[in-house]
Amino acid sequence: MTKYIQLFLILLTLSACGQKENEKKSPENVSENFAESKQPTESQNEKISDEELYLNIEFQDFFEKDQISFLINNCLVFENKILTSDKSVGLTDIFLKIKKENSALVIALNNDKNITCKTKDSTLIFTILVNQVENIFTLNLNDGKYVGFDKLDNNKLLFNQSHMPFEYD
Question: What is the pTM of this model?
Fold first, then answer.
């Protein structure tokens, strides 16, 4: 029974992403998907306050000179960033603070530049390429607005979600 549930979840994720079951991922067609994705727009670089915070995303432990690209609902947030975790705290230098404005997400990348991604969906699907290996996660905001990713073997990611901010040593 568990295998049927896992199969159902995989098929549901693939259909939600518009992925055809028989289409295989390769670096070439992943790049094509980036070109076709809804392009974000940069907006004013105002900081997102704790009261406005809709979602907080951090890239945490076990990254070592890994090439990362990140999309939310097919909107490219960043591409080909090289991430390395600080071993003393288990955190990279990339973090995202997101607020919701009408039908758009305003994403502050490291409190530096804001990117606006229009989205009609209330479901958020994260597509993260780790050294060109695709990882897809569907977010349930009922599980918390603090999200963290740890790198596992084979360029896969562990998805962490919490109602409380993560603590680092």
Answer: 0.73
